[in-house]
Amino acid sequence: MKAILEFDLENHEDRMSHLRCIKSSDMSSVIWEITHNLRKSIDRRFESQPQSGRDEFDGVEEVFMEIYKLLDEYNINIDELTE
User: Fold this and answer.
1) How far is CA 26 from CA 59, 66, 79, in A?
2) Most exposed of 4, 54, 74, 75 (fewest Cβ within 10 Å)?
């Protein structure tokens, strides 16, 4: 079975669709990393750090820092993929 996708790269909507298609593997890899490895990584980091002076906002900040790192690692620019 074959599928042939055609994009008019002069057309803005087609160009966006094309970019989303070619980045889909990277996006799915980032989602996999977030759902399977991020929690373990954050849990280990917090277990090894003293609890004094930390609150729930520190945890939220850590999670988002890791998400941004993953997006950067897989070269995913959300602004580029959305309008």
Assistant:
1) 26, 16, 15
2) 4
Q: What is the pLDDT of residues 24-46, one digit of tens each?
A: 999 999 999 999 999 888 888 77
Which DSSP state fits 20? H
Query: What does the block give as tokens for 22?
Result: 């070619």
Are the C-beta atoms of residues 28 and 3 closer than 8 Å to each other? no
Q: In sequence order, what DSSP letters do the residues of 63-77 get, joined into one string?
A: HHHHHHHHHHHTT--
Closest CA to 20 of 83, 70, 81, 74: 81
Write the secondary structure of 23-49 as one string of H (helix), E (strand) and C (coil): HHHHHHHHHHHHHHHHHHHHHHHHHHC
What average pLDDT does the structure give for the chain? 89
